Amino acid sequence: MAALLSMLLVGVALVQLGMHPSAATMDEDIELIWGASHTYFFMDGETESLALSLDDQQGSCFRSKAMFLYGTISMEIKLVEGNSAGVVATAYTISEGPWSYHDEIDLEFLGNETGQPITLHTNIFVNGVGGREQQFYLPFDPTADYHTYTIEWNPKYILIRVDGKAVRAFKNYEEYGVAFPTWQQQRLYGSLWDADEWATQGGRVKTDWSEAPFVAYYRNYTFAWCQPSPGVSWCGAEPRNSSRFDLDQRTLDELRSASDQHKVYDYCTDHKRYDGSEFPKECSLQRQGL
Ligand SMILES: *[C@@H]1O[C@H](CO)[C@@H](O)[C@H](O)[C@H]1NC(C)=O
Ligand SMILES: *[C@@H]1O[C@H](CO)[C@@H](O)[C@H](O)[C@H]1NC(C)=O
Ligand SMILES: *[C@@H]1O[C@H](CO)[C@@H](O)[C@H](O)[C@H]1NC(C)=O
Q1: HSE of 39 in the Cβ direction (CA atoms, 13 Å)?
Q2: Which residues form ligand 3's pocket by a CB distance below 6 Å?
Q3: CA 266, CA 253: separation in Å to the nearest integer?
Q4: Fewer CB within 10 Å: N-end or C-end of the chain?
Q5: What's the gap in Å between 276 CA and the centre of ligand 1?
């Protein structure tokens, strides 16, 4: 009885710290939204994994039960093997409420023909405005094994990491008049769906349904609340001049190397798209290293 009680107390303490007690309880933290008949949990050794599948009838989708405002979300994903042209797997966070001012942080994995690179497509919406696409080739075969994908969100920046390494940062430039998500809670979603209208080679390569069902695996969903400086009540109350969230040199180096070596598209350098019109403001701020 005493042992049970202390276990319960440890559980409560972990929840209060905003830490996830165990990777083996993913089914308690997420719920299936659609395609439940196409989705199953299974044990992979000690780790509980979730298989999302897609066939010509339906895809599948889950979401986290909890919502959060500032924190770090991590997930290991093993993408669809073989010919995944037209198939898109996602992990994204999104606020609830009206679409017209929703916030969203997107990671979408664009499938491809066997042996061709899978693209990590990222985007960030603030107050309903997106159009901030950056795409990267992954420097490994994301279908051969699980890799860790992380969204880190605090008042100063949003950081996307792959296997711990930063690939994209979207900084808070509110002082220059660029909107940043600072007040709406978000929830994690993961899904597998058919997007052969546009996903692969600009929509030229279609989904080969003879290969269905397509399956992507998700495991070890972890979430940790953003930790403010000692004495500060929560990250949103961190003083403006605090250095708590300054990017360190290692992260800056990782971002530069991802940009130089793996980036295949950046809205900030798409001159065709902004032909004759102004680039979004954050593009020049970023270039100036602000
Ligand atoms: C798919 O492979 C082709 C050929 O290597 C490549 O050009 C393209 O960028 C890849 N990704 C997508 C999403 O089409
Ligand atoms: C689960 O993910 C967390 C955060 O990325 C990591 O620290 C931990 O080692 C992972 N656990 C397992 C069992 O892989
Ligand atoms: C931040 O500003 C406050 C109030 O102006 C000041 O008391 C504090 O010392 C500053 N902290 C840093 C790290 O500069």
Answers
A1: 22
A2: 239, 241
A3: 18
A4: N
A5: 28
Give strand pairing partners of 94.
Answer: 104, 187
Q: What is the pLDDT of residue 9?
A: 37
The answer to whether 53 touches 81, Cβ cutoff 8 Å, is: no
Q: Is the peptide bond before 213 cis (omega within 30 degrees of 0)?
A: yes
Tally of domains within the chain: 1
Taking alpha carbons only, the member of 260, 265, 219 closest to residue 121 is: 265
Mean pLDDT, 10 residues at a time, over the chain (290 residues)? 38 41 71 88 87 94 96 97 97 96 98 96 98 97 98 98 98 97 97 95 95 96 96 96 96 97 98 94 93
Q: What domain range includes position 225?
A: 2-287
* Ligand 1 proximity of 201 Cβ (cutoff 6 Å): yes
Q: Is the pTM of this model over 0.85?
A: yes
- Look up the CATH number of the domain holding residue 206: 2.60.120.200
Residues in contact with ligand 2 by the CB-under-6-Å rule are 23, 47, 74, 148, 220, 222
CA 208 from centre of chain: 27
Nearest to 120 by CA among 130, 131, 110, 106: 110
